[in-house]
Amino acid sequence: MATVSNIANANVANVAVRDLKIQLGANTVIDALDLDVRAGEFVVLLGPSGCGKSTLLHSIAGLIDVTEGSIEIGGEDMTWADPKDRRIALVFQSYALYPTMSVERNLSFALRINGTPKAEIARRVARASDMLQLGPLLKRKPSQLSGGQRQRVAIGRAIVREADVFLFDEPLSNLDAKLRTELRRELKQLHQRLGATMIYVTHDQVEAMTLATRMAVMKSGVIQQFGTPAEVYARPANLFVATFLGSPAMNLLNGALHVQGAGVRFAGAKLDLDVSQYAFGAQPDYGKPCVLGVRPEDVRVRIGADSNQRGQVSLIEPMGNHRVIWLDYHGTQIASIDQEKTPVAVGDSVAFAIDGAHISLFDEAGGARL
Amino acid sequence: MSTTLESSPRVSRRRHARRKRFSPSRLGIYGFLVIAALFFLLPLYVMLVTSVKPMDEIRLGNLLALPAHFTLQPWSDAWQSACTGLDCNGIRVGFWNSVRIVVPSTLFSIVIGAINGYALSFWRPRGAGVLFGVLLLGAFIPYQVMIYPMVRVLASVHLFSSLPGIVIIHTIFGMPVMTLLFRNYYAGIPLELFKAARIDGGGFWRIFFQLMLPMSLPIVVVAMILQVTNIWNDYLLGLVFAGTRNLPMTVQLNNIINTTTGEKIYNVNMAATILTSVVPLAVYFISGRWFVRGIASGAVKG
Predict the structure, then answer these.
(1) What is the ipTM of this complex?
(2) Does the distance separating the beta carbons of B199 and A63 come in below 8 Å?
(3) Which among A306, B63, B206, B291 counts the fewest CB atoms within 10 Å?
């Protein structure tokens, strides 16, 4: 536990959610969910709206009653503990700053309630305001702050509490794009400085990819995959994760697997690809319909190559540092990310190659990774 | 170049501003409004004029005429020496009784309404919906129905015909509307604010006093106006529950007007009536802006 060297806070706690079930009214939002967050980790819960990620976060915070299961924070059973006793801090999407209090009093509210000595309050407020450059704003009311400043104050309120676990509920969603990237960086630096455990809910995959040490992709109350961003991106556990992550989304092609000599081939309606290098999770069911997924960056457009794998360029989206080239391949749109300024124009017929080492194969029926 | 660019929007803006101020339809609207205002102000005018005329002049019957001999004697009579039955101490007795009733009643009903509304919107105890429904139902039952039972209840705890008795009555009868008012106001406050305060360790009373109450100023003003006006204007409850020593100004006014020795002293009666209505009028004029603001903020956010 004490191996993390840059711990600024006294305590860094792990969070263990076991067999969690949450019912809101008649419908079950979360059922039999397990989640292990190690001490000092930055875990992002990612999913579309309504997938239960916020509900999970709020149940960890103690704001939603658990129907079944348990929640442990720092090895202590906190399932029924009062929110204030869980040693957590929660940052809301809507900032939830106390409108009648100045920034300073917003920051110190929790400490004033639990009777922290004045000198200690001053020390902690000063530390938080240094960290987030809130110094000049301390005397202002929340209504006199911009969106970014408000969210900084909300984060400061969490820091001041010196909580063991920081919870973030879509904290950047209300900000404009530029501020969002700025604060995202600040949050990552903050995590590095504090070394505290952080659980972060978002529907924004960029935030998830950039911030997380591990991320959990959720759908209808179930964690689809839990792993490092690189892992989840490169080896999605099922079709949902594959299509939810990445922009443009992963290209999907239907087909079936066949044994050919020593290798395995994927054969689609038109496509025929050697997938011998693919690391199958289990012995595949040959002949069964399956889906081949390939990231746009693993589709290479080749000018002048002699190949019968050809598509017609239907759209080119310049993104500044790269371009997305959309190919019409026998009625299927395939996206390719081009970094090399390949000279193509809309209407050209170009050859393309798929990197057989960087593909994903899914069962067509269940969507699970093969 | 730049000047032409700058001037063009200015020209168009001026054209918008220069709307005809006196078109026929405008005149019609103003004409109607002026007539309506005169119509409603006429009784007040008659009251004011009559209250500063000596009785000789009133007997002539020129209701709308301005006073020939201006006098403030009726006002001082009304305040100091008008007779209610046998006592001739003027309406000031009733005034101070009303103040003694209004101040604590308003205070208690607002505090209780605010706490109720706060608990119902944020803490949501079991059965809160039912409780709120019952409370609302109370607001729609004519209170005349409840007078007799309330008399019996108050008599049984020896509070009938006393100042605490009438204060309790006003607090109870004000509770449904006050609760509704505050509940709706708090419903417009994001729940996350409350959750944040809970995580920060706030309990029921601390969140109420340090967070919610300071945010409730606009609605407190609205509640205050409603309660002060309602309780000040109340006649029936005061007559029944206050007891003879605490009769409010409205009851006293009625007694003054009904007490006649010889002729009806119209000027004194008019002065007493205006004096009685001065408090709600003043409340309206002073805090009317707040009232609108409070109602609006409650409506928009809720």
Answers:
(1) 0.81
(2) yes
(3) A306
